[in-house]
UniProtKB/TrEMBL annotation, chain B:
Molecular function GO terms recorded: transmembrane transporter activity
Name of this chain's protein: Branched-chain amino acid ABC transporter permease
GO biological process, one term: amino acid transport
Coiled-coil portions: none
Pfam families found in the cross-reference section: BPD_transp_2 (PF02653)
Compartments (UniProt record): Cell membrane
TM regions (residue ranges): 15-37, 44-64, 70-93, 105-125, 145-170, 199-218, 275-295
Keyword Transmembrane: yes
Similarity comment text for this entry: Belongs to the binding-protein-dependent transport system permease family. LivHM subfamily.
TrEMBL record, chain D:
Presence of keyword Secreted: no
Annotated protein name in UniProt: ABC transporter ATP-binding protein
Domain ABC transporter: residue ranges: 5-246
GO cellular component entries: plasma membrane
Lineage: Bacteria, Pseudomonadati, Pseudomonadota, Alphaproteobacteria, Rhodospirillales
Residues annotated as transmembrane: none
Gene Ontology molecular function, alphabetical: ATP binding; ATP hydrolysis activity; L-isoleucine transmembrane transporter activity; L-phenylalanine transmembrane transporter activity; L-valine transmembrane transporter activity
A Pfam family annotated for this UniProt entry: ABC_tran
Species assigned in the record: Pelagibius litoralis
Keywords noted in UniProt: ATP-binding, Nucleotide-binding, Transport
GO BP annotations, alphabetical order: D-alanine transmembrane transport; L-alanine transport; L-isoleucine import across plasma membrane; L-valine import across plasma membrane
InterPro entries: AAA+_ATPase (IPR003593), ABC_AA/LPS_Transport (IPR051120), ABC_transporter-like_ATP-bd (IPR003439), P-loop_NTPase (IPR027417)
Domain of life: Bacteria
Length: 333, 301, 434, 248
């Protein structure tokens, strides 16, 4: 086995280590990376639905529901407790996911996307309008919660969020990976390719999609809670349609359907966005827009796909080229 | 709520619906033919408004007749539709017709993001306000309340004219019939030798021009500022989806429904105002998944 | 396990680095980060403030900077969204290691940044945001406000209304639907109900922030015919509302009270008719009755108009206050340090009880870190020489009397005011010509 | 002989086209029934009604004596009725083996989220099925890459993977090269016998009908015209004129 053929297999652990070490070099980046993780988790939710060929333009809804649940919990208990925030946040995302999901899994494609959009805009409007309960468009503060009963200073808390988030992300990514490889995960994929056959196997496509929908809602919820505690504030903008679009954007950017792509995409997006808005304040949206166009037109498999074919090209000079390419793709997905 | 207030709410709702219709009908037309949900549609609306507000501001300041405001709106809409719409269709959309729906929407989303910053670079971030057209028509008093003639009479008339014009165009001209043919059955239309490329281009330019025209008309009644496109696009999504995507007359009715719903909310429960369009859309789609006038399609096995 | 080891090594490394203590030598430059809206609707405030900051810093540096050290500014766009602002704020503090931060315009951002600044131990001036909550709910060492807050702004508006139009019966409100719109109305109505208990509130509208159209609300208001309509809106929202109200004759039947309209006067042009009440969020007015003949003031106003094409509005004044506060604090700290360049903590100590003046009257930092600023209001009038409405029948209110006392909560403090307060409050009057 | 499936008085029309008009038919256990008839006679419609894809405007369908007229394809499938399609309905991105494994997982209701599809206990059984339809060599290739003939076989294998009591096949040999048709049907027939499945198949090739059908039903304009043993039916004058003649 040559060194080159090892690279793809090591890529993800290497990237993880690099990300884990970054905050030591640039302390300010810790929170940015935490936010990237939060978005990555939510994007993973989008990826789950993309497996079924469905695109939700309203998934920021679950992000917001979980974030607000955590915020309400924090306010009700004067600070709150991180673990319960995560649990309650994710649970409420799942409950809302069930209510919304029962309706939307009856629809496909554009109607699926639009109905999700409608639900998210309703939640957005409610969050924005019912000022006395939700703090209106300014949102709610999320005070730094206790962690298992321990009060933490900001630097320690931020480190905990980042490294804790990283560990959770790795576990969740593995779990989603396994879910995709399970029978019901494969059935989810068949909603995209042939739903009729699935029904003719005696399986309810709606139920399969509902399971996927709940998984995606839970993932968005997890991302939402992490975002809420990392930022210390939740706003209705969490549920806005542009937020949902951003999640889909990142999913495509990273590599549609790819688990690791969700996080790679989120990381790249967050870095580009932060730097673009710092150094090209007038045109950061434009930069992101061109970036997105370039990806869709020239690299439809996203960053992960670019990486895969890059490794493949390097590898093809060696005897085990094909093998390296296959591994790179495998490692990527 | 007495009769007077009901009448007032209806007037407000109709004026609002007229503007929303203009944008939504372009969106739905494009979807019907190209099968692409154009997120950048809101940008055409905004750019139409900006062009009229800035050019109008300049020429009226130079002492030109205020009546030029009306032809200016038409010209601005046509220019935005042909130049911007044409460029986007030829350079971008043409390359993605065979891609997945999600990617198509994202391409228009990217265009939307780019155009947002283009507007900011060209027109800055300060609001424009150019109400010459509105002022030149004066006010009218109804039930002791002053309305502008522009909003109460002109806008609904223009919307009706656009609706009638579109019907005429689609039913009674060759180009229009070709568009309808492609809307109804894309494969069949291609099979009988219709030049779909040309139809797509024409439809996209027409749809973009309608959105820009909506913006041009709105510019006389509102401030033109960054972000108006983003709000308008979700609203016109709601209208188009409520009507059934691709339904032109349906869009008029849905716009009216949403416009009236919104203005009655302002009178009865102001808190619900922003919620109304989405609630209406949701209820309609839950009851009729394809929208009020949409058609169900079954798959052949 | 591996992770633990890595953390340990890297941790030791950071410790070693941070233990190299830097002596307070005179730096090459004094770095200041400024958050302001450079995009989005609120850039109507951010852009002029940025232009003003650049002009004022250039002028300060030309005359030796602060204690001989030139200033360098970094701008952060609040329009990029809360999360980008916070990331950039951290980067400036932790990476660039700025000496002070001016943050921010948005109250929402102030809410987020105040605790962060406290944790990062960086001197932070809330240079423009109005929320009164921050110092009422928490106490801070590093966070200061170099201007007044929403309570004196609202209270002075109510007082001006009651003094100039004591007989009005009914009032309606049209505010933007976000914290400022809601909170300002809560305070305005609390003060109004306390000092004029028989007032009738006939309608409360909170249209969406950035709403492009108020036609429906205006129809409703015309049917209701309130004597007074208050709106604390600003920017495009205020412009649109006033223009549409004027077009449809609402301004003929109701008096508008617009506490933030000083920032819209020039843009509104002739659309804002005479006879309506305008506030300035402090004593901020390009024809400041006490300063307009002052050469430093009028020179700046002219230069600003020259550079940006518009007269300075209140955020420009707020920026001048923040910069002058910084200068005053450093100079005080240098003096207290025997002429040597002060440590950062010494500068923070010097903020206590600091007085400074920007383009308006003198501002004083109170013991809760809140600035005390006087309030100027007036009624619109159209005069020759200006293409837009200017202020007449101006009143200057004393900030001390109008600012919530330390340790009290604004709304409950306003609620215990009495009708007698209107007569007791100290007022200086000016007319347009004076 | 008991009727495994019974259709009574089925009616359906699309616009002006009558696709089923008083269709009555019994399907007997253990027999292979061929349905023949000209295009547009309503053969596929009959299959669509029996498997729940279409709802008749009148009439009823019974399976094992139980009414299934208003049931969905999913419910009918779960009762033991499987279907192979004229255009193969497969999961294009999945491999041939995975297509079968998904069917097996559906049959056994394997919903546990952390079991791998490739490691379910039915794997050996599915490999055997692939062997039966001569597709083991393409087991690991995505079905969208395979030629139509193989896809047809896999489509039938997917239906068989459900272990149905009754199998509907819509033109199992269309799209298969004529030189291979018999070979293909031999494979299918063997598999059917091995799994003891009753079958109903729509077919245009009379040679195939003759060789594989135990019974034949003739369709025209939404009606069942004749029913009987292959030899009798295929020599029937009307049938020769209306159906077979057209086929040639």
């Amino acid at each position: 086995m040559t060194f080159m053929s090892l690279v793809p297999r090591l890529a993800i652990p290497l990237l993880l280590i690099a990300v884990a070490l970054l905050p030591f070099l640039a302390p300010w980046s810790k929170v940015m990376l935490t936010l990237a993780l939060a978005k990555g988790l939510a994007v993973l939710g989008i990826v789950v639905l993309l497996h079924a060929g469905q695109v939700s333009f309203g998934h920021a809804l679950f992000f917001a529901v979980a974030a607000y649940s955590a915020a309400f919990l924090g306010q009700a208990f004067g600070g709150g407790e991180l673990v319960s925030m995560v649990l309650i946040g994710v649970a409420s995302a799942v409950v809302v996911g069930l209510l919304v999901g029962l309706f939307v899994v009856r629809y496909r494609y554009i109607f699926f996307g639009m109905l999700n959009l409608a639900f998210s805009m309703i939640v957005f409007s409610v969050l924005e309008k019912f000022y006395h309960y939700t703090g209106g468009s300014d949102g709610l503060q999320v005070a730094r919660p206790l962690v298992l009963g321990i009060e933490m200073e900001r630097p320690a808390f931020e480190s905990l969020l980042f490294y804790g988030g990283l560990v959770i992300a790795v576990i969740v990514a593995w779990a989603v990976h396994r879910y995709f490889d399970s029978p019901i995960g494969h059935m989810l994929k068949t909603i995209k390719t042939n739903e009729t056959r699935l029904e003719y196997l005696g399986v309810s496509a709606r139920r399969v999609l509902l399971v996927g929908y709940l998984v995606s809602a839970a993932l968005c919820g997890l991302g939402g809670v992490l975002m809420a505690v990392a930022q210390g504030i939740v706003t209705p903008e969490y549920a806005w349609w542009i937020r949902s679009g951003e999640l889909v954007f990142i999913a495509i950017l990273g590599g549609a359907g790819s688990v690791s792509g969700a996080f790679v995409g989120a990381l790249v997006y967050e870095v580009v966005r932060t730097y673009a808005s710092a150094f090209a304040g007038d045109v950061w949206q434009m930069i992101l827009g061109f970036f997105l166009l370039g990806i869709i037109l020239y690299a439809p498999r996203g960053l992960i796909g670019v990486y895969g074919s890059f490794m493949g090209r390097i590898g093809s000079n060696t005897a085990s080229g094909k093998e390296a390419k296959r591994r790179a793709m495998e490692a990527a997905e | 709520m007495n009769l007077q207030l009901i009448a007032l709410a209806v007037f407000d709702g109709v004026a609002y619906a007229a503007l929303v219709f203009m944008v939504a009908v372009g969106l739905t037309l494009i979807f019907g033919v190209l099968r692409i949900l154009n997120v950048a549609h809101g940008s055409f609306y905004a750019i139409g408004a900006y062009v009229v507000a800035s050019v109008g501001g300049a020429i009226f300041a130079a002492g030109w007749s205020p009546w030029l405001a009306f032809p200016l709106m038409l010209i601005a809409a046509a220019v935005v539709g042909i130049v911007l719409g044409g460029l986007i269709e030829r350079l971008l959309l043409r390359r993605i017709y065979d891609k997945e729906e999600a990617l198509q929407i994202l391409v228009t989303f990217a265009v939307f993001m780019i155009l947002e910053d283009v507007q900011r670079l060209v027109w800055g971030v300060q609001p424009y306000f150019e109400a010459t057209a509105l002022q030149s028509l004066g006010n009218i008093q109804v039930f002791g309340v002053y309305y502008t003639v522009y909003q109460l009479i002109l806008l609904p008339l223009v919307a009706l004219a656009v609706l009638a014009g579109l019907r005429l165009f689609l039913r009674h001209t060759l180009s229009g019939r070709l568009i309808l043919a492609v809307t109804e059955d894309r494969e069949a239309a291609t099979a009988i030798g219709i030049d779909t490329d040309k139809i797509y281009l024409m439809t996209f330019m027409l749809g973009a021009a309608l959105a820009a025209f909506g913006g041009a008309l709105a510019s006389a009644t509102t401030s033109v500022l960054p972000g108006i496109g983003a709000d308008m696009i979700v609203l016109s999504f709601a209208v188009a989806a409520t009507a059934g995507l691709g339904q032109i007359e349906g869009a008029a009715l849905a716009a009216l429904l949403i416009g009236l719903g919104r203005s009655f909310a302002v009178y009865l429960m102001p808190e619900l105002e922003v919620l109304i369009p989405y609630l209406i859309m949701l209820l309609v789609l839950l009851w009729r998944p394809e929208g009020l006038f949409g058609v169900t399609q079954t798959r052949k096995i | 396990m591996k992770m633990k080891l890595l953390c340990g090594v890297a941790g030791a490394l950071t410790l070693a680095l941070s233990s190299v203590v830097l002596a307070a030598d005179k730096p090459d430059q004094l770095q200041v980060g400024v958050t302001a809206f450079l995009s989005g609707p609120a850039s109507v405030f951010g852009e002029p403030a940025k232009a003003a900051a650049e002009m004022m810093v250039a002028e300060m540096n030309a005359s030796g900077g602060i204690g001989g050290v030139p200033l360098k500014t970094y701008f952060v766009d609040e329009g990029a969204g809360g999360e980008a602002v916070l990331a950039e704020y951290r980067r400036l503090v932790q990476d660039v290691e700025v000496d002070a931060m001016f943050a921010s315009i948005s109250s929402g951002n102030c809410n987020k940044i105040a605790p962060l600044a406290e944790d990062l131990k960086v001197l932070n001036f809330m240079w423009d945001c109005g929320t009164q909550r921050i110092f009422e709910e928490n106490s801070y060492r590093y966070v200061f406000r170099t201007q007044g807050h929403a309570t004196p702004e609202m209270l002075s508006s109510v007082l001006y209304l009651l003094k100039t139009k004591p007989d009005f019966k009914s009032i309606a409100v049209v505010n933007q639907d976000y914290a400022w719109g809601r909170e300002s109305w809560k305070m305005f109505s609390a003060a109004l109900k306390a000092m004029k208990p028989d007032v009738q509130i006939v309608a409360e509208f909170f249209p969406k922030f950035g709403a492009p159209d108020f036609s429906t609300e205006i129809s409703r208001l015309q049917a209701l015919r309130p004597d007074v309509i208050v709106s604390t809106s600003w920017g495009g929202d205020l412009d649109t509302f006033v223009r549409q109200a004027a077009q449809r004759g609402l301004t003929n039947t109701s008096t508008l009270v617009l506490p933030l309209a000083e920032s819209s006067l020039e843009r509104l042009g002739k659309a804002l008719p005479a006879g309506h009440i305008v506030g300035t969020r402090g004593d901020h007015y390009f024809l400041h009755p006490e300063r307009k003949s002052d050469l430093a003031f009028s020179g700046f106003v002219e230069a600003f108009k020259e550079k940006t094409g518009a007269y300075p509005i209140y955020p420009v004044f707020h920026m001048s206050q923040a910069l002058n506060a910084l200068k005053a604090a450093y100079e005080k700290a240098i003096a207290e340090n025997g002429g040597d360049w002060p440590e950062r903590e010494q500068v923070v100590d010097a903020m206590a009880g600091l007085s400074f003046a920007g383009l308006g009257r003198e501002v004083r930092i109170r013991e809760d870190n809140q600035g005390i600023e006087d309030q100027l209001l007036g009624t619109t009038i159209h005069v020759d020489g200006h293409e837009f409405a200017v202020l007449d029948n101006m009143m200057m209110f004393d900030g001390d009397e109008l600012t919530t006392p330390v340790g009290q909560e604004s709304v409950s403090w306003l609620e215990q005011l009495t009708p007698e307060f209107v007569g007791k409050v100290k007022v200086e009057a000016f007319s347009h010509g004076s | 002989m008991t009727a495994l499936l019974e259709a009574k008085g089925l009616e359906i029309h699309f616009g002006g086209v009558v696709a089923a008009s008083d269709v009555n038919l019994q399907i007997h256990e253990g027999k292979n029934l061929a349905i023949i008839g000209p295009n547009g006679a309503g053969k596929t419609t009959f299959l669509n009604i029996c498997t729940g894809y279409l709802k008749p405007s009148a009439g009823q369908v019974f399976f094992n004596g139980k009414g299934i007229t208003r049931k969905s394809p999913r419910e009918i499938t779960r009762l033991g009725v499987a279907r192979a399609f004229q255009i193969p309905q497969l999961f294009g991105e999945h491999t041939a083996l995975e297509n079968l494994l998904i069917a097996a997982a559906a049959r056994e209701r394997r919903w546990a989220p952390f079991t791998r599809l490739g490691q379910i206990p039915e794997r050996a059984e599915m490999m055997h099925l692939l062997e039966m339809v001569n597709c083991v060599h393409v087991a690991d290739r995505p079905v969208e890459e395979l030629p139509e003939g193989q896809r047809k076989l896999i489509d039938i294998a997917v239906a068989l993977a459900l272990k149905p009591k009754l199998l509907f096949m819509d033109e199992p040999t269309s799209g298969v090269a004529s030189s291979e048709k018999f070979a293909v049907l031999d494979i299918v027939a063997k598999a059917l016998t091995e799994s003891k499945v009753t079958s109903v198949f729509v077919e245009h090739d009379m040679g195939i009908v003759e060789r594989f059908a135990d019974e034949v039903a003739v369709w025209n304009r939404g009606e069942v015209l004749h029913r009987g043993m292959p030899d009798d039916i295929l020599s029937h004058a009307d049938v020769v004129r209306d159906v077979i003649g057209e086929e040639i």
